[in-house]
Amino acid sequence: xxxxxxxxxxxxxxxxxxxxxxxxxxxxxxxxxxxxxxxxxxxxxxxxxxxxxxxxxxxxxxxxxxxxxxxxxxxxxxxxxxxxxxxxxxxxxxxxxxxxxxxxxxxxxxxxxxxxxxxxxxxxxxxxxxxxxxxxxxxxxxxxxxxxxxxxxxxxxxxxxxxxxxxxxxxxxxxxxxxxxxxxxxxxxxxxxxxxxxxxxxxxxxxxxxxxxxxxxxxxxxxxxxxxxxxxxxxxxxxxxxxxxxxxxxxxxxxxxxxxxxxxxxxxxxxxxxxxxxxxxxxxxxxxxxxxxxxxxxxxxxxx
Length: 304
Description:
By secondary structure, the chain is an alpha/beta fold. It has helices spanning about 40-45, 65-75, 90-100, 105-120, 135-145, 165-180, 190-200, 215-225, 240-245, 265-275, 290-300; strands spanning about 1-10, 15-25, 30-35, 55-60, 75-80, 155, 185-190, 200-205, 210-215, 225-230, 250-255, 260-265, 280-285. About 35% of the residues lie in helices and about 25% in strands.
């Protein structure tokens, strides 16, 4: 569905995407993870055929975006990070008007709008204007609108940003349904649990390059341990303890209020720490997550 080799995007002297290779298979959910400025959005815009590549090779749906941009865009669905709905139109009108942009007949877009409102659980709000809808409803409508042309490839930029947990899970359910119907998904997200839930494979980008690639399970296995032991202390009290526990784990990370021990068995490490007289304010044993991988590969420093 998407094939990129040594893909580059420059803005003047700034190189936003620095020679990445990406292969997205038909029917899978593929994710781009990375901090701000990693190059995710620039890559997505090139795939969406709205921003030309500077160098390298790129095909989308087997076509060259430089020569076949309109044909590609006609077969794509795009969910932008910010909802850009027509707020003074109704839910139904948003879908019907958008469908007409693709040259679909009025009768077809009427049928399609009804199907998509049911899919997004918005049928009861069909004739309500968009402005007073909740954030979750607007997001579901934006996703529904992106499907009006029956796309083969759906690009989703931060699909659940700002939603409460119930709305996020409803959006996830709808995306699972699309994938089961054969739609290929490409997702950018800052939510690690979302990436674990949705993505068959993903890449972690940092500084315009790909730092790692694989399934969520593979990345956790390669870059983390089975478990993490968190030892929490009052501020400033963890430093003297580091020397007592630094040999109890494969990797130790010291934070302002806690020590993280990456280990195969958190309970065994905790028992040994207690035997050495370590008395944290609290302790927690948890499984390693994609967030641990993400922070290890991209660091904890805030990137603006």
